[in-house]
Write a structure and sequence with these properties.
Shape: globular
CATH class of the largest domain: Alpha Beta
Distance between the termini: 45 Å
Radius of gyration: 18 Å
Number of domains: 2
Helix content: 25-40%
CATH topology of the largest domain: FAD/NAD(P)-binding domain
Strand order of the largest sheet: 1-2
Order of helices and strands: HHEEH
CATH superfamily of the largest domain: FAD/NAD(P)-binding domain
């Protein structure tokens, strides 16, 4: 098998995910090809616009389209907007950080943690990571509800 990036891998069983498409309205309104908005990978601004920020599923960044990626992107954007107001310039760059839990079944899980410089290095799934994920999810959503 050959990936879009050119990586070739041999396999006995392939489980694949169909190509992810961006939003039709983005392409229809000519904001970006394939439904993705061209985004500066470090500043998270729309290419050609220093005051328009793009995060999550709408970016054309080479990271997963997950809540985890959007969470880390939002931290960078929030800090940069605050610093632009305070000192007139952004102070932080997004490094492509993503952290995702991966359920493996039978009460086992692992995680993927990576950024632009470091590809995922998956560990073997185990029960303790599954229970950590379950606990983390409850804590995260409990704290988010308190902010709304």
């Amino acid at each position: 098998m050959k990936s879009e990036e050119g990586t070739e891998t041999e396999y006995d069983l392939l489980i694949s995910i169909p190509p992810h498409r961006g939003m039709e309205v983005i392409e229809k309104d000519k904001l970006g090809d394939g439904g993705w908005i061209p985004t500066d990978r470090y500043q998270l601004t729309m290419e050609g616009h220093d005051n328009v920020y793009v995060l999550g599923d709408t970016t054309n960044l080479p990271v997963s389209k997950t809540g985890s990626a959007a969470h880390f992107e939002a931290e960078v954007v929030a800090e940069n907007i605050a610093s632009i107001i305070k000192i007139g310039a952004p102070v932080r760059e997004y490094d492509g950080k993503v952290y995702c839990f991966i359920e493996a079944g039978h009460d086992r899980a692992t995680y993927a943690m990576f950024n632009y410089q470091n590809p995922p290095n998956l560990k073997s799934p185990n029960k303790s990571m599954h229970w950590f994920k379950m606990s983390y999810n409850k804590m995260y959503w409990t704290s988010v509800r308190g902010l709304l």
